[in-house]
Design brief:
The chain is mostly helical. It has a domain at 25-76. 47% of the residues lie in helices and 5% in strands. The longest helix has 11 residues, at 66-76.
Length: 77
Amino acid sequence: MSQHPAQSQDHRHPGRPSPIAVQKALGGVDYPTTREKLVETARHHGAGQDVMDLISRLPDRNYDSPASVSKEIARLH
């Protein structure tokens, strides 16, 4: 039995969390922010280990918007 497309995983980057999972983990972040605050927020939201690992690998700098976080995440892929 095949899964409904909305329930299937994102197969563009196997083993990587989906952008939606990352967005959920970082919901409510006040910008500008640091990598440390992003990690704390993701942990507070109960993010999975794959999301935590990805956020922890971000460069240690200030992020001024969700777009700047997404841009750095894309570079990690």
